Amino acid sequence: MSTPQLVVHHDKELMAQAAAARLITKIVDAQTSRGTASVVLTGGRNGNGLLAALAAAPARDAIDWGRLDLWWGDERYLPEGDPERNVTQAREALLDSVPVDPERVHAMPASDGPHGADVEAAAEAYAAELAKAAGPENHGAVPTFDVLMLGVGPDTHVASLFPELPAVRETERTVVGVHGAPKPPPTRISLTLPAIRAAREVWLLAAGEDKAEAVAIALSGAGEIQAPAAGAYGRARTLWLLDSAAAAQLPRSLYPPASP
Ligand SMILES: O=C1O[C@H](COP(=O)(O)O)[C@@H](O)[C@H](O)[C@H]1O
């Protein structure tokens, strides 16, 4: 487990641009060291803001897009192409404008796909795809992702792991179906905490006043069942990328106010 580190930016636009620059560097470094890179994308406002900033960054062309595997931390279980699907939003924000290898874009299944309404079967299929991509060096049933990004919801949810729901208690499976999510749509697919923790680096993104309480709770010693964001950390690094509004309720011991 890595101790969380906080980076607080002035506003959400700057946070998205800085996070995009950080991601470009990480991907290029991983491709230089290992030949390929693997990144887990998140949905939500901040995840999509980062992807849009990446699309607009001239340095995006430093990435070898054909040697990048993209996975998702969660998906809303809706038909292919639905505007509320995380993958649809990621395509619009970035993926349609860069030369990714479609074989390496690992979208989670859609509700009109081969598994139909059976979200458990869809989750199992995604777990199998992850397991196939994991090598013996990965010590588990998922690849060691270079970077796994998570938006933090106002209720402290990450991916589709909502407080107190069964998915956040999962300790064996890497991917689960989620029923009765409090945020629509109620049916979703999510990586579990054990799968999230297999990543080298986990980056939690939160911007805006409505995230301030969640950020403060998750970073002040809350349990992961009550505050799923508290249980999200990477093997080597856990980074909380915030704007000043989202950091506003943090205790002074974690984020002292700037000097006058
Ligand atoms: O529904 C979801 O919400 C979270 C957070 O989204 P935000 O808009 O409040 O930032 C997101 O991380 C997750 O991927 C998504 O499915």
From TrEMBL:
Top-rank taxon, per record: Bacteria
Catalyzed reaction equations: 6-phospho-D-glucono-1,5-lactone + H2O = 6-phospho-D-gluconate + H(+)
Keyword set, alphabetical order: Hydrolase
Catalytic class of the enzyme: hydrolase
EC number in record: 3.1.1.31
Any matching Pfam family: Glucosamine_iso
InterPro entries the record matches: 6-phosphogluconolactonase_DevB, 6PGL, Glc/Gal-6P_isomerase, NagB/RpiA_transferase-like
Gene Ontology biological-process entries: carbohydrate metabolic process; pentose-phosphate shunt
Domain Glucosamine/galactosamine-6-phosphate isomerase: 11-240
Record-level Gene Ontology MF annotations: 6-phosphogluconolactonase activity
Pathways involved: Carbohydrate degradation; pentose phosphate pathway; D-ribulose 5-phosphate from D-glucose 6-phosphate (oxidative stage): step 2/3
Family indicated by similarity: Belongs to the glucosamine/galactosamine-6-phosphate isomerase family. 6-phosphogluconolactonase subfamily.
Annotated function: Hydrolysis of 6-phosphogluconolactone to 6-phosphogluconate.
NCBIfam families in alphabetical order: pgl
Protein name: 6-phosphogluconolactonase
